[in-house]
Every structure is written in structure tokens, then in C-alpha cells.
Design brief:
Helices cover 45% and strands 12% of the residues. It contains 13 helices and nine strands. The protein has helices at residues 12-21, 27-39, 58-76, 87-96, 116-123, 154-166, 177-186, 210-219, 229-232, 238-252, 265-270, 297-308, 310-328; strands at residues 5-7, 41-49, 81-83, 99-106, 126-130, 169-171, 191-192, 223-225, 257-259. The strands form two sheets. Strands 1, 2, 3, 4, 5, 6 and 7 form a seven-stranded parallel sheet that branches. Strands 8-9 form a two-stranded parallel ribbon.
């Protein structure tokens, strides 16, 4: 069974920007677009991540350049992709067979301490954001800052309310566990985990406990299951990834489970440095054969069907994320 795919996290924008800065004319068209098409991707969330060398005052500049990179590739490849900011635009892209691109922020470094930046980013088309990556921001602590035991900062509580006012989807992936529970206390709108897996199956700080997964689902959100090896098993394979998906589905239902594989291998091969090494050894990148890049969705789909059945597999592969965004994005 060929499944349409909605992927909640792929850092390809970072790789595309780096390659274009080195003189490559069209890295998206040369590599990423064929990958997305081969994998059957119909909807792709594109996060803007702040690399270590841009943390601080350079974060906003880099963020705006990455957002412009998305606009550039969407203009060059208008016959294949479209950035969507509203539910109407999402539906139109789906009807036309275009890959719908949704802009997101991974970590709030571009915001700094000025919450008015959320308005700026919203006007620039950003429709989803997390408060942290692994490191600390002005808003909250990431999972790499466990020693602090930090909740959201006062500014982080205000940021949560501001994002909800705008309609920007709150993403809790990478947020410290204490910060997660604080956000769950103050949030009134549904929130999501774009790329996290299940701690009940693999005890890793980037994974969510069953209680956290239930809380995300109870808010009206979903968990996009991450495919990075250390988050899945000590000796991971595609079966390990399916185990995490199945566990989450059994826990909260397929309507609250999506795909967020976080393909890192091809990005890491392009970008240096890509991570800070806070949680994993980035020189060895233990990716999983069979779920390494977007084209692998073509073979993952039938495995999902075998594991979950047609209806649940389609929900996880596409409908949960697409349906959530259809309801969360502004109507027009």
C-alpha cells in the first residue's frame, strides 16, 4: 500500500542554505525534492534551527536567511512545492498534488527576550515553534540542561500565551521534563511534540514518558515519532522505530501519533558543526538502515500497514499531522 506521508521534522533547510552559500545552484532540486517525491511526502514541516555559531545576536539574522531560503526554493520549484500558512492554502496544495511546506522554529534563539519577534516570525510565515533546543534559552531549559531543574521562565510563560494568541503551534520536543510539566500547566491550546519517541521503550532524556505522551494527546496534540537510533534501542533497526510508533498508538490512539523521523545523516554530511554533542556523539551518527532519508518512506509505508493495518497506518503516516494543521492553521 502506498501511503501519503506527512513529516513533522526535517532540517533540510539548513543543509540547503549551507550548500547554496558554497555555490551550489539548486541543492533542493538536485537532492531533496527527488527524495521527498520518491518517499511520497505530501506535507513537510521545515524547522529553522540555530546552529551553535549563530547563538546570540546572530540567531535572528540566520533565522531570517533560512526563512528566505524556504521562499527561494518554493519559488524555484513552484510546480512541486508550496509554503502554506493557512488551512485554505494547505487544502489547495493537497488538491494540486504539491508538497505542502510548513515553516517552524526549532528553539527560540531568534526570539531572544523580545516577544514581539513572534509577531515578526508569524508574518514571515512561521506556524510552529518550540521554546528550546537542548540548550537554555531566555524562555526555558532544554533537555541538555537537566541539572538546573528549570521550569519555564516568566518570559517563557508569557511566550506561551503570545504564541497561543497568534495561533502558532507550541512544540515541546527538546523541552526539559520539568519545563514540559510547567508548560502543560499554563497552556490552554493544544501542543505537540514534533520529533520525540517513547521513554518506556528506550530510557533517553530526549524521549517522552507515557505520562507526557498522554498529556500531549489530552491537550489535543500529537507526538511525531523520532527515528534517530539512540532514541529507539541500543541496537536499533526499522523494527525498533515501528515498536515506538505502535507503543504510542496503543497508548493514545493513532489520531495522536505522527511521523517526525528527524533525518540527520545527509544534513550532518553537509553542515559542520550540526550539533553541539550535548546528548550524542555526533562523529558517529547511529542512524537506522531503512529509515535514513525521505525516500525510505516508500518502504516504511508497507511496514506500517503490516504492523497497524490500513486505517491506523494512514493516520500515523499522514492524516494525524495533516488533520491537526488543517484545524490549527488560520482559515484564510
Amino acid at each position: 500500500m502506498t501511503l501519503p506521508i506527512a513529516d513533522c521534522h526535517d532540517d533540510l533547510l539548513m543543509a540547503v542554505r549551507h550548500l547554496r552559500e558554497r555555490g551550489h545552484k539548486d541543492p533542493f532540486g538536485d537532492f531533496w525534492l527527488p527524495q521527498l517525491r520518491e518517499g511520497g511526502v505530501a506535507l513537510q514541516v521545515l524547522p529553522v534551527y540555530t546552529e551553535e555559531q549563530f547563538v546570540g545576536e546572530a540567531a535572528l539574522r540566520r533565522c531570517l536567511l533560512m526563512l528566505e531560503e524556504a521562499r527561494h526554493l518554493a519559488s524555484v520549484h513552484a510546480a512541486d512545492v508550496a509554503i502554506v500558512e493557512t488551512a485554505v492554502e494547505l487544502a489547495h496544495a493537497q488538491e494540486q498534488g504539491l508538497i505542502a511546506l510548513v515553516l517552524s522554529i526549532e528553539g527560540a534563539e531568534p526570539v531572544g527576550r523580545d516577544l514581539a519577534m513572534f509577531d515578526v516570525l508569524w508574518r514571515a510565515g512561521v506556524r510552529m515553534s518550540s521554546l528550546t533546543w537542548n540548550r537554555r534559552t531566555m524562555l526555558a531549559d532544554g533537555v541538555g540542561e537537566q541539572d538546573t531543574g528549570g521550569r519555564l521562565t516568566g518570559l517563557g510563560v508569557e511566550a506561551t500565551a503570545e504564541m497561543e494568541r497568534l495561533g502558532m503551534v507550541l512544540d515541546v520536543s527538546h523541552l526539559s521534563e520539568t519545563g514540559f510539566w510547567h508548560l502543560a500547566e499554563v497552556a490552554v491550546a493544544p501542543f505537540v511534540a514534533s520529533h520525540s519517541s517513547c521513554r518506556d521503550l528506550q530510557d533517553h532524556p530526549r524521549n517522552l514518558t507515557d505520562g507526557q505522551i498522554r498529556t500531549v494527546a489530552a491537550s489535543g496534540g500529537f507526538v511525531g515519532i523520532n527515528a534517530f537510533g539512540p532514541f529507539l534501542h541500543d541496537q536499533p533497526d526499522v523494527g525498533s522505530y515501528l515498536d515506538h510508533i505502535e507503543h504510542a498508538v496503543e497508548l493514545v490512539g493513532a489520531g495522536h501519533v505522527a511521523l517526525g523521523p528527524d533525518f540527520i545523516e545527509d544534513v550532518a554530511a553537509t553542515v559542520d558543526p550540526v550539533l553541539t554533542g550535548a546528548l550524542v556523539d555526533v562523529t558517529r551518527l547511529p542512524v537506522v538502515d531503512g529509515i535514513r532519508r525521505p525516500a525510505d518512506f516508500a518502504t516504511l509505508g508497507p511496514l506500517l500497514v503490516s504492523r497497524l493495518g490500513d486505517d491506523l497506518a494512514r493516520a500515523v503516516a499522514h492524516d494525524t499531522l495533516a488533520g491537526f494543521l488543517a484545524g490549527a492553521l488560520p482559515g484564510r
